[in-house]
Amino acid sequence: MNIRTNILLRVYAAFGLIILFAVAVLVKMANVQLVQGDKYRAMADSLSTKYAEVEAARGNIYSIDGSLLATSVPEYDIRMDLKAGAIADNQVFYAKVDSLAGSLSDYFKDKSEREYSRALRNARKEGDRYFLIKRNISYQDLKAVKTFPIFNLGRYKGGMIAVQENKRILPFRDLASRTIGYYNANSKAAVGLEGAYGDYINGETGKRLVQRIAGGVWMPVNDDDEIAPKEGADIISTIDVNMQDLAQNALKKQLIKSAADFGCVIVMEVKTGEIKAISNFNKVADGEYKETFNYAIAQSAEPGSTFKLATYLVAIEDGKFGLNDIVNTDGGNYKIYNHTIRDHENEGIIPMKVAFEKSSNVAIVKQIYKNYKDDPSAFTSKLRALHLGDKLGLQIPGEGTPLIKTPQSKSWSGLTLPQMAYGYELKITPIQLLTLYNAVANNGKMIAPLFVHEIRRLGNTVELFKARVIKDKICSDRTLGLLKEMLEGVVTEGTAKEINNPLYQIAGKTGTAQVADGANGYKGKRKYQASFCGYFPANNPKYSMIVVVNNPTKGSYYASSVAGPVFREVADVVIGSDLELDNNHKLPQLVGNTKLPSVKQGYKKSSQSVYKSLGIKALYASTNENEIGIDSSNGIAYQEIKMNKGLVPNVSGMGLEDALFVLGNSGLKPIVKGEGEVKSQSLAAGTPIYKGTRILIELQ
């Protein structure tokens, strides 16, 4: 054999071996991928682990009186590892699966026992290690589920997996919901206190070891977290639940009555700046209103006549006019630059105080134009010195940007100065305007509104917030006194006489502003915004308030009959509920033959409290001195309710509400005839009561 042939044979042999090796590799690859693929994929999955973040329970938000406004409640997804310990044995699983299915069906009542059994059996055949059984169940439900067949074997033997998530709930539902707000971790959207104080409320996330199983699903390895999450801090807001409920209901009632587009109300404590109530509603359907936008802090718009307070403040402080200066309102029409300024009524020749009380646009426009036309910046700079062109720096996001024009503004024209005098060609939010009125009530000290009183963690104070002073004194004491006099005059003599209350004094200003109709501006359909801003009680202000109602379409659109009633309703209840305020008013003295109030039978302690408040002494029918005491002086004879278990009570002389309460608690079923107070009852007092016994009470 020659050398060439020998070399070729060796080459062919080597090449053949390479081909055989390559074929062997391909065969093995095919075997691994196609024949044993599931086995090796499962092995790979079982070896893939990582640490997943565990969301911390967010801190609670409370009202100033301790009521819970927002909290996190744990919810659980129940899943099942159908290859877990004890049930890996088919005999154990199939012996109890129907019992488990029956328990799930009986408890949740969403599927039949057969449906649950079929689903569990199919998941078993597929080797599902993370089978979803039920979403979003409570902790109480979780405790019950753990006692079901198979699951009661434990996490590793029974295969039950509970995945916790925290759900944010508002116990008072829509009460101040826009102010409480929300924080969306996915979109990073922040609204209200939830967003503004997210760094405190969110807490610190924990860590949990999870492993990837078939299908790319990550399953917890252990029941407990490797690093426990740290709960968030609690926020103590300034909101008063009762005041919030009152303001919200009063506003919604007026919006429905007026068929308005939207409205808002804010109640602020004068000395502290704390927001006690804030409500916003906009129409979503006829007669239906929801809180979807915070108009109170975000809606920057032309306020109209409520801005005249700022105009008068600047002009009086500059010595441009006094309250007794006379002005001719020109029949209620004043033409300037081919534009006519109009009054609602022709007031004739009046003092500037009356012009404010009657809300004369002509009077203030003539005075401001006459005194500032040659130097309008003197007027606008004083408005800016009141910080009306600045944001307040609120504790919650979304504050609207105010606009106070200057002669350097691009949109400045000859009409701008006269228009600004009565609240047009400028923009301000309701809460920014309220801050000015609150400063007048607070003897000139302007403070920023507060929404958060305190931050606490585990009951300990982390941060305490107090009033932030914006301006120590907005004007001189003399000017301040004149402004207060005018604001009180608006309610006693001017446009807000409808809301005057003889028991306490309200001070404030009405505003009925025409608003632009979208792209059509002021030439389109006429729309109005009614507002009232003020404080109470005027002699010793404790609360300031603003009410805004946009585009009322039913009935009157004037502020005195749209925004004013909301203010009055809220103020009346607040005054009546606040003992400190209510005690400032002396009760009328009973003299001569004044008739004492009629008395109905009732509970001793409640009646004593009423008598004491009225300054009336009580005489009690009972002679048991240790039980109720004896007052020998003149007063009202009174009989204490006596109830003996199992015996018919005496309800003669009671009002219907009290009688129904007593009879119902005694186990009787009352039938009512007539109205007034109880004059007779069909069953004599002291007779035995039998179950379901009916009693007829006649009222007269």
TrEMBL record:
Q: Which Pfam families match?
A: PASTA, PBP_dimer, Transpeptidase
Q: Which CDD domains does the protein's record reference?
A: PASTA_Pbp2x-like_2 (cd06575)
What lineage is on file? Bacteria, Pseudomonadati, Bacteroidota, Sphingobacteriia, Sphingobacteriales
UniProt subcellular location: Membrane
Q: Which InterPro entries match?
A: Beta-lactam/transpept (IPR050515), Beta-lactam/transpept-like (IPR012338), PASTA_dom (IPR005543), PBP_dimer (IPR005311), PBP_dimer_sf (IPR036138), PCN-bd_Tpept (IPR001460)
Its chief place of residence is membrane
Q: Where are the transmembrane segments?
A: 7-27
Signal peptide coordinates: none
Stated name of the protein: Transpeptidase family protein
Which terms are listed as keywords in the entry?
Carboxypeptidase, Hydrolase, Membrane, Protease, Transmembrane, Transmembrane helix
Identify the residues that the record assigns to the PASTA domain, covering every copy: 642-700
